[in-house]
Write a structure and sequence with these properties.
By secondary structure, the protein is of the alpha/beta class. Helices cover about 30% and strands about 25% of the residues. Strands 14-13-12-11-7-10-9-8-15 form a 9-stranded mixed sheet. The chain has a 6-stranded parallel sheet with strand order 3-2-1-4-5-6, with helices on both faces. Helix 1 packs across helix 9 and helix 4 packs parallel to helix 5. The longest helix is centred in the last third of the chain and has 20 residues.
Length: about 350
């Protein structure tokens, strides 16, 4: 791990002006131990426009040139899915720490390369699962660990939004760009079930999908069985009304969580977890407003400056990857697939 003096600030660069990049700008401006130094885009005019709008000091007309900047310690990568692995590896080999949007990789061989790059270049690489960094997830985890729900029975998680038909500019419609609903929003319920159950990846999975006339899965519905007997039912969709929810069922009650994948996104509102007791009574558990993207920035600061392990280590990313690959294998074969 490259460890700077704890009193210094981390210099950040962003590869791409994708819409989600804007969510990291304000947290970096507010961060006590980070500063946003540069934005890179294939065309410098676009990068310059973004820089002017958001007050970014430097612009680059190529990704490679930004990686050569010695003032940049961390690179944030919000590119289309198919480019995540390539540019994460290039950033790591340039000696930069990496925060990369999900999915970090889409194959086990790519994960091997990522782990090797992190070790060889002595850098931190972690997947930008903002929801796993948000305090809401930690509150849920602690209450489960404290036995509030008793023995767990099941997880029910879904995430969906309506993707405008025929939008040729949206990478989600193309397999070559790593689109597909399960790779996209399906990562939310899959990751939450793995993390909150604390049993590692599932033993076996089963699922099915639909293309709805496209080359990608526009919807996916699956089931995961874990070694402790817990079953998680998950679904993702690009063709229904926006909806996102997680129900965690135990013998002593149920947690109902709205928007578990994007807990109020930019952190302007409190979030609430509803606890439903066996007798039907309910309790609203308030989690104070907090920016999930700010939590990611703070996690990187803690890793690099303080030597704290990542909240989303590559070992967890591997577990999530193996699970999603198995879910796709099941949908293709029609069979239950063991991990």
């Amino acid at each position: 791990m490259v460890k700077k003096n704890s009193s210094s600030k981390l210099g950040w660069g962003i590869l791409s002006t994708a819409w989600i990049a804007e969510y990291l700008v304000q947290p970096l401006k507010l961060a006590g131990r980070s500063k946003l130094i540069a934005i890179a885009r294939r065309t410098e005019s676009t990068a310059h426009q973004f820089a002017v709008e958001h007050g970014v000091p430097k612009t680059y007309g190529s990704y490679e040139s930004m990686l050569e900047d010695p003032d940049i310690d961390v690179v944030y990568i919000p590119l289309p899915n198919s480019l995540h692995c390539e540019w994460s590896l290039k950033a790591a080999r340039a000696g930069k720490h990496v925060l990369c949007e999900k999915p970090l990789v889409q194959s086990l061989s790519e994960m091997d390369d990522m782990e090797n790059a992190a070790v060889t270049n002595n850098v931190i690489i972690f997947e930008a699962f903002a929801h796993l960094h948000h305090p809401q997830t930690q509150v849920i985890q602690k209450r489960i660990d404290d036995g509030v729900l008793g023995s767990l029975h099941s997880f029910l998680g879904w995430d969906a939004f309506f993707l405008q038909p025929g939008s040729k500019s949206n990478f989600r419609y193309y397999r070559k760009y790593g689109g597909c609903s399960l790779w996209d929003i399906g990562g939310y319920p899959v990751s939450l079930a793995i993390v909150l159950n604390r049993m590692g990846p599932p033993l076996e999975v089963w699922g099915q999908l639909g293309h709805n006339g496209t080359e990608v899965d526009m919807w996916y519905s699956g089931q995961m069985r874990f070694s402790n007997g817990v079953v998680a039912q998950i679904s993702s969709s690009f063709c229904t009304t926006q909806r996102s929810e997680l129900h965690i069922v135990g013998e002593q009650g149920v947690f109902e969580v709205k928007s578990p994948g994007t807990p109020e996104g930019t952190g302007h509102l409190d979030t609430y977890i509803v606890f439903v007791a066996p007798n039907g009574s309910t309790e609203n558990i308030c989690v104070p407003a907090y920016d999930a993207y700010q939590a990611e920035v703070e996690a990187m600061e803690a890793c690099v400056l303080d030597g704290v392990p990542p909240m989303v280590p590559l070992s967890l990313s591997r577990d999530i990857l193996r699970t999603i690959l198995a879910l796709y294998d099941s949908a293709q074969s029609g069979n239950v697939v063991q991990l």
